[in-house]
Each structure stands twice: as C-alpha cells, then as structure tokens.
Amino acid sequence: MNEFVDRILISEEEIDKITTRIAAEIDRDYKNSEKRLVLVCILKGSIVFMGDLMKKITLPVEIDCMKVSSYGRGTESSGTVHIHLDLLRPDLEDCNLLIIEDIIDSGITLSYLVKYLENKGAHNVKTCTLLDKPSRRKVEFVPDYCGTVIPDEFVIGYGLDYDERFRALPYVGILKPEVYSSLGE
Ligand code: PRP
Q: Tens digit of pLDDT per residue, the chain (185 long)?
C-alpha cells in the first residue's frame, strides 16, 4: 500500500464489480435507443473510471471529454463552474450524453453541466459517478448511475488526486490526514 494512504476504502476487486454492474445497467437502459450513446469524461479525475467502464459496455459507444473546474486551491467549491474544454460535436440532438464523473461532492459541477448540455441541445443527458458524498451537498443532485456512496473522507487514487498526485493508484484510498494538514488544507 502507498505510504501516504491511511487505508484502502474501495479495493481493485470492488471497483471491478462496480464497473461490471454499472456497464450492465447502461447496456440495459440504452439498448432500445436509436440515438448515439456518448460517454463524456470530465477530466481529469474520471479518466481511469471511464477507461474501465467503457470496455465493459457492449453497446456501440462513443467518447468525448470536457474539462471543468469549480475549485480554487482549497477543498471547498467556489460555486462557479468554469468550462475549460467544451464539447465541439455538431450533432448533439442525435446524442444520448452520459456524463462520467469520479466523484460528486457539493453537486455544483454536475447540476450545472446537465443544464448546460441540455441547453446546448443534447437529446438526453444523464450522469454516472463512481463515488458519491451526499453528506457534502450544497445543491440537490441525484446521479442516474452510482458506484458507491462514501463518507466525508479525503479520497485519492483511481483517478482522484491530492495536489495532482496519487491518480494512478489502482484503488480508492483515504489520504493520511497529516499529508494535507501539514500543508494547511
Ligand atoms: C472533482 C470531480 C468533479 C467535481 C465534483 O473535480 O471530478 O468534477 O470535483 O465536485 P462538486 O460536486 O463539489 O462540484 P476536480 O475539480 O477536483 O478536478 P479533477 O477531476 O481534474 O481532479
């Protein structure tokens, strides 16, 4: 285990079961749609989850990416969502967009993005997250697909970072508090 990890919250085996379950749910829910199914990866944290999930979906699937931010340097959302990389495809009215997130915290990012993409003309917009922290909500938001609900702990790994580190860990772990408390977070 990584020396900065206090304990593993979700193991590789558990993540594998989660991605298998969600892929089957997606296959079931979209199999009768004639629209194009587009997974929208919200960079950067969702890269690992999206990569594993898309391999398990058996329907024809397309991928796209967006980069957004609502956080400054701290751990509290600023409340304002900035779009740094947008969807450029011209055929949104032909698309079922499924936004893929690593984690929902305040809910501000996804509630904004769903409205934004609907206003841009997408046929349908749904959301999928690996992790959900409902205890941190500032706006009401319920994802369409959820890997697992977690407590309010600082989680890293499987795409999630602390100061851009630890994204490549193959599991979701809890960061040792002394790592971020020593830096005044
Ligand atoms: C995280 C996460 C979501 C957002 C969730 O991204 O990937 O996009 O925060 O928070 P919210 O529910 O409070 O809006 P982050 O800004 O850490 O960027 P990253 O994915 O590049 O690490």
A: 889 999 999 999 999 999 999 999 999 999 999 999 999 999 999 999 999 999 999 999 999 999 998 865 556 666 789 999 999 899 999 999 999 999 999 999 999 999 999 999 999 999 999 999 999 999 999 999 999 999 999 999 999 999 999 999 999 999 999 888 765 54
pTM of the predicted protein model: 0.94
Mutate which of 104, 133, 135 to test ligand 1's pocket (most atoms within 8 Å of Cβ)?
104
Give the C-alpha separation, 65 to 88, whole Å. Answer: 10
Note if 105 is an active site residue.
yes
Q: Is 102 in the pocket of ligand 1 (CB under 6 A)?
A: yes
Which of 65, 108, 112 is closest to 84 using CA atoms? 65
Q: Which residues contact 12 (CB under 8 A, 6 or more apart)?
A: 170, 171
Alpha helices in 39-163 (DSSP H): 47-56, 108-119
143 lines ligand 1 (CB under 6 A): no
